[in-house]
Amino acid sequence: MERQLAVCLAGHVDHGKSSLLGRLLHELDLLPDGKVAALEAASAHRGVPLEWSFALDSFQLERDQAITLDTTRVRVRTPRREFIIIDAPGHRELVRNLVTGAADTTAALLVVDAESGAEAQTRAHAALLRLLGIRDFIVAVNKMDLVQWDEARFGARRDEIAAALARLGVVVHAIVPV
Fold it and tell me: What are the residue boundaries of the structural domains of the chain, listed by start?
């Protein structure tokens, strides 16, 4: 097995970082038994569709306010490698938590909303991660369903974020639509 890889999940507030990770854990069948039913119940109680981000919430306040307050560490094992994924908050006021969580990571998964693009916190997070020595990035252009999987929209977002990250001198290994 290859060595462990620690990845920081970063990006602007409400671009879907926690939801993306929660859904990924579901797709990889890594959620504990009964977790999906609990998420469905919690989502129904709040009158919202299934909210995958609830899978990562440590505090009730995070669910109540639909925000990530602190970092969450998730271990994902594949046949080839073990990953530690750090889900970091997107709010500007919580940037210290991002820095603390990212300090032990060597790569970043930057999440960008397909509709709104690389907003201020996305750019700030990328710059902070670079200052912490993180050079390897993957970008997920998230919420593509909300733009009907429009290729032109994806291309615009891809080009926008690629240019911004090039200015930081990072290596972008992939930019993928999600």
Answer: 5-22+68-177
Rounded Cα distance, 37 and 157, in Å: 35
Q: Report how far residue 86's alpha carbon sits from residue 60's, in angstroms, rounded to the nearest whole number.
A: 19
Mean pLDDT of 122-143: 95
Q: Give the C-alpha separation, 10 to 139, whole Å.
A: 10
CA 80, CA 20: separation in Å to the nearest integer?
A: 22
Whether 69 contacts 97, CB under 8 Å: yes
12 SS3 class: coil
136 CB contacts (<8 Å, ≥6 apart)? 106, 107, 108, 170, 171, 173
Q: How far apart are CA 36 and CA 79, in angstroms?
A: 24
pLDDT digits (tens, 9 = 90+) for 62-118: 555 555 556 788 899 888 999 999 988 755 666 677 777 778 899 999 999 999 999
Instruction: Retrieve residue 40's tokens.
Output: 């469905």
Quick one: CA torsion of 120, 122, 123, 129, rounded to 10 degrees?
A: 140
* CATH class name, domain 5-22+68-177: alpha beta
CA pseudo-torsion sign 44, 49, 30, 112: negative
